[in-house]
Design goal:
Number of strands: 6
Low-confidence stretches: none
Distance between the termini: 17 Å
Largest sheet: 6 strands, mixed
Shape: globular
Radius of gyration: 14 Å
Structural class: alpha/beta
Helix content: 40-55%
Strand order of the largest sheet: 2-1-3-4-5-6
Mean pLDDT: 88
Order of helices and strands: HEHEHEEHEEH
């Protein structure tokens, strides 16, 4: 299944980017090692061949502070949910997804961001919005820059 999902992802992203340059994707997931939704998303991303850095907000104080800062800035609200995953496309954060999801949804969201040249798409369940505020994007870039694993091409 992994080779098929990875191939589909590469085809969709390449078509959406309309570019001959290779497209790379990796992810940084803020979650809890005891959360079944977090574990499920890790498994889905593994099957898709998307490299992942998993940061346990329950045991890593720095990760917890990063997560709280990013969630507050990008999602807001009174409650905080995991998994909170930042997808990097060609080394740039382009998608923030809250909650677990299956491969087809991930492919759809990544194709959407690949087709749009600016901003970060924030997806919280059925709600989606584009963040174009430069200070928020800079915060996201600065926070996940050192956390991202080497991307898959």
């Amino acid at each position: 299944m992994a080779p098929r999902a990875a191939a589909l992802l590469a085809i969709v992203l390449a078509a959406a980017c309309a570019s001959a340059a290779p497209v790379s994707v990796c992810a940084v997931e803020y979650g809890l090692s005891t959360c079944p939704h977090c574990v499920h998303l890790k498994e889905v991303l593994g099957r898709m061949g998307i490299p992942l850095a998993f940061l346990d907000v329950g045991s890593d104080r720095n990760a917890s502070e990063e997560y709280t800062r990013l969630y507050s800035a990008l999602v807001g609200g009174q409650y905080y949910y995991v998994p909170f995953t930042v997808f990097l496309v060609n080394g740039t954060p382009r998608l923030v997804a809250v909650g677990a999801m299956e491969a087809p949804t991930i492919v759809e969201l990544l194709a959407t961001v690949a087709a749009n040249r600016t901003g970060v798409l924030v997806s919280t369940g059925d709600a989606r919005r584009w963040v174009t505020d430069a200070s928020l994007i800079q915060l996201l870039n600065a926070t996940v820059a050192g956390r991202a694993p080497p991307p898959a091409l």
